[in-house]
């Protein structure tokens, strides 16, 4: 019955009554979903898109009734999530939409203007595409907001995964190597080997001297035929065995010493690397007093009060007690303004720059940030090894991603079951 009803609504039209017959497209409600509806026109448009994608992929389409039912189910589920987004106040700004459209254009090798023109040439509406992207972004935010809170990853899970072979490989550093090979065979004379070696040494020195790898190799005369290229990002274990000993010995942007293997002479440059290794960051222990301009306290008055509190602290009053009395940072005022150990990037730039230029046991001049006026007292500085923290964060992110789809599927089933849906 459902199949016949939906097929009828998707047909091109029906005859109207009157002195003449005309064909018009029907637009009727095909499903009531909580406080909203899915219209036949939405279903027709989505079906057209689905069929177009199936044709482009060269895949075999499922039976029409199955395709209609599955497409309608997806529209219903999207509708539920859009309504949730509306209730939660999820909004996508014009700037965020512009960035999303620009990324799509860039992925297709186009400027935003060229992308818009191409869509118009294909008979597709730029505005409709933009609306679809906005819809997808709202749904994604609703999913993330609801699913992320369902995922709990314990320290024990992280430790257990790190102890596995898979976990050890995950936290290995990744290397992006550019390689050039000048072949040498068993028939190559010793004199020719020496000559080729000397020439390759000059290329290595040019690269080390600052010339771009590609530019140096492009200048090679025709009698030297090199092979190789960019190996892309690879874990250490995924590199050819020839490079597994070389990679850890050179840093980002460095070129290894020329070396020879049975296949020939190798020039190897580390284009980039990420992860792995020891990581140390500079941390600062600081406390502050924040004064927020308001209708009662003007911006100038807040700055003057900050300067007065600085003078009082330097005259001997306890900075922590002043922070408890005057600071409007509810997160630190009760602790005497103590923010604990802060890492690079943790604070807003104005705060961080002032903190970096203030000596230990010294109170800064008042500084303005987006939050108000601050005075800072730097208490200590240290170098902290965060290698293990970074390894655990990498594993946590991986395990989160692995659990996300499973939790998302369960959450989607739950909201579908809880929604009021009446298919017409």
Tell me what the structure shows:
This protein is of the alpha+beta class. Among the domains are: 1-77, Porin chaperone SurA, peptide-binding domain (Triger factor/SurA peptide-binding fold, Orthogonal Bundle); 172-274, Chitinase A, domain 3, CATH 3.10.50.40; 280-385, Roll (Chitinase A, domain 3). 49% of the residues lie in helices and 20% in strands. It has 15 helices and 14 strands. Strands 9, 10, 11, 12 and 13 form a 5-stranded antiparallel beta sheet that branches. Helix 2 (40-57) crosses helix 3 and helix 7 (155-162) crosses helix 15. It is flat, with a radius of gyration of 32 Å.
Keywords:
424 residues; alpha+beta; Triger factor/SurA peptide-binding fold; Chitinase A, domain 3; five-stranded antiparallel β-sheet; four-stranded antiparallel β-sheet; 15 helices; 49% helix; 20% strand; flat; disordered N terminus; periplasm; PPIase_SurA; PPIase_PpiC; rotamase
* The level-1 CATH class of the domain at 280-385: Alpha Beta
Strand content: 15-25%
User: Can you tell me the overall shape?
Assistant: flat
N-to-C CA distance: 10 Å
Helix content: 40-55%
Nearest-integer average pLDDT = 89
Class by helix and strand content? alpha+beta
- Rg result: 32 Å
How many distinct beta strands? 14
At CATH level 3, the topology of the domain at 280-385 is Chitinase A, domain 3
CATH architecture of the domain at 280-385: Roll
Low-confidence stretches: 1-24
Main β-sheet, in a few words?
A: 5 strands, antiparallel
Main location: periplasm
Subcellular location: Periplasm
Keywords: Chaperone, Isomerase, Periplasm, Repeat, Rotamase, Signal
Catalytic activity: [protein]-peptidylproline (omega=180) = [protein]-peptidylproline (omega=0)
